[in-house]
Amino acid sequence: MATTQSNTVAPNATEYGGDEISALVLDPGYSVVRGGFAGEDVPKSVVPSYYGILSSDAHPKHSYGENAIHNPLPNIEIGNPFSDNGLVEDWDTATNLWEYAITSRLTNTKPSDPMTNGLNEKTDDNKDEMEGIETHERPLEENPLLITESPLNAGKGREKPIEIAMENWGTPAFWLARSGVLSAFSAGKPSALVIDIGASSTIVTPVHDGMMLRKGVTRSSLAGNYISDQLRLLFSTSQPAIPLTPHYLVNSKTPVDAGAPAQASYRTFPPGTEPGHSFRALQEERILTEFKESVVAVWSPGRLGGHHAQGGTNLDLARTQNARPFEMPDGYNQLFGVERYRAVESLFDVKMALSDATHPAPTPASTLPALVQQSLAGVDVDIRPHLLANIVVVGGSSLIYGLNERLKQELEALYPGPRVRIFSPGSVVERKFSGWIGGSILASLGTFHQMWISKKEYDEHGPGIVEKRCK
Fold it and tell me: What are the tens digits of pLDDT across the range 367-390?
């Protein structure tokens, strides 16, 4: 009688990443790539997803890391391997970027090919001698790897990461996990409605008993980049217009009164050596990020375009609130009152959105309350009250002051019966890195060791095994 191997027996620790070997967790996002060892509290490697592109006679040269994207080199442009919907569109660059995130902080850098390091003369004889010999030490030969993915990722987009991990990096074991599920784990909840407000997208993911409910996943582009666009429109339409001059263009500045024109000397570049438009846009985004963190707030109670209990408009009431000061890199400074609420109000009320020819107004279906409505409509009616009582809000753009309070008010108005409870980490680190932290928890569990996809299984079944195993 034939016997079958019991699937309850834990695999060999050295093959599947037991206690003796540290698994790595990689959490790629539109703004940054987070990497670190499973079981740790925070990622050791946090690398921008943006990369520098320098023109050359042959092929453009790509450079990665903070220094590569903030140094105003001649004609430098900035790229990103992710599309605006938060999915990878340039896999070659994404592979190099993720490998940089791993090797720069977590493992040793691969040695270069001895035939191309400038120390050996390149000849046809050398080429024949080196043929068939492995010249690169692959960076993950000793580390299992867990990669997070967008809840919207599907098809080839799911298979590509395991191909990269197994073929390029030589990892002995692999797992692919949905970021929404991991954020629920990081909050200690097997079932939750996860609202992830990132840079390019806001995604609502219903999670039930540790499984993502695919039909309930909804997405909107009203996220961090959208708020930045609203701020650009707000600054450009102000009277007078508010300048947005990046740090690298300012040589020196003189203090001025609030609202007065800047008194600064500006840096100039010889013709033909100016950094590209995309470089300036990224440097402007750094200013806008600081503005969002220190000035922007969500209005509550009620909607900014509505009326308060005394009968007046909330816009007039907002003008009486304490304004927040902000100084631009060139010294221009201003007190921002109602403007600090206006920039983010359209996440809840599209009537308050600023728009122009290149930035059309969003649709009502893309607001945060509408996304939650659409998500709950896609799941079983019996679990909706449980999800409403376990809403987890994460993502860097969720840190805007007052967002959770306003979201709770809006949802209580939509669902007056069920109890609405919002859980959101108080720590900035936990909010920004929730997906990575959930992956760190998952990959360090003793019961998870039997879940890894081994290199042997990959060789036998191919990359399609991800669809079968990583639900």
Answer: 999 999 999 999 999 999 999 999
